[in-house]
């Protein structure tokens, strides 16, 4: 087992020029938690990691594993042609809220709608990054360009504050083919903030998750069930 420790400042220095344009659209404002470039690490990981590293799993710290993480690595084998990232859906109506203006202008849209047929957005607590595929995908790398980011944020009237998660969500609305959607049991989010903030009527459509949980995600400081 080989452990390599990376210097945060060094990584941020490499990241900043790549993600600078994104930060104004997907950060909570200058000097705040998510405005730091490091929260966009996953977006540009393929440009920072050595070429010999071809696949990475990136996870949040507020997780509890109920199965061997090796099984999650096997999910790379399920990526459809053209997909570069494995990610689970967001399990709260946060993006129903964020895309309110686009939804109002496009009443028939699936953007922000709950699963199984809607596009609820993504949660970046558990990420499978196929770095090799990310490097080779012309489409994905075009989407990192400031002009493309600007174009999409204007189209969707998007202003977020959740870093990489917002970028992946917005891109997923336009190009779902870039993503392999992980089953909710691989990122069983527990936060219920939006239930009490105006969305109690639709909350459960987003929050339900069938099957045996493999990874619990105690997001927004939610306690994780004891064994």
From TrEMBL:
Any one cellular-component term (Gene Ontology): endoplasmic reticulum membrane
Keywords: Transferase
MF term (GO), any: xylosyl alpha-1,3-xylosyltransferase activity
Pfam family, one: Glyco_transf_8
GO biological process, one term: protein O-linked glycosylation via N-acetyl-galactosamine
The keyword Transferase is annotated on this UniProt entry: yes
Name of the protein in its database record: XXLT1 xylosyltransferase
Gene: Xxylt1
């Amino acid at each position: 087992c080989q452990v390599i420790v990376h210097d945060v400042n060094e990584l941020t220095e490499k990241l900043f020029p790549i993600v600078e344009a994104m930060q104004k659209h997907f950060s909570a404002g200058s000097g705040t938690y998510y405005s730091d470039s490091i929260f966009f690490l996953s977006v540009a990981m393929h440009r920072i990691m050595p070429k010999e590293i071809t696949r990475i799993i990136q996870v949040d710290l507020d997780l509890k594993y109920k199965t061997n993480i090796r099984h999650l690595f096997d999910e790379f084998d399920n990526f459809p042609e053209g997909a570069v990232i494995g990610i689970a859906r967001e399990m709260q109506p946060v993006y129903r809220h964020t895309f309110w203006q686009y939804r109002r202008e496009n009443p028939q849209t699936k953007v922000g709608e709950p699963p199984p047929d809607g596009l609820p957005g993504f949660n970046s607590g558990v990420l499978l990054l196929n770095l090799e595929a990310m490097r080779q995908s012309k489409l994905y790398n075009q989407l990192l360009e400031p002009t493309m980011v600007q174009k999409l944020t204007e189209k969707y009237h998007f202003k977020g504050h959740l870093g990489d998660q917002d970028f992946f969500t917005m891109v997923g609305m336009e190009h779902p083919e870039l993503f392999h959607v992980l089953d909710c049991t691989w990122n069983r989010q527990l936060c219920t903030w939006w239930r009490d903030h105006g969305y109690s009527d639709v909350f459960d459509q987003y929050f339900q998750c069938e099957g045996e949980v493999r990874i619990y995600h105690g997001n927004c400081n939610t306690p994780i069930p004891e064994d």
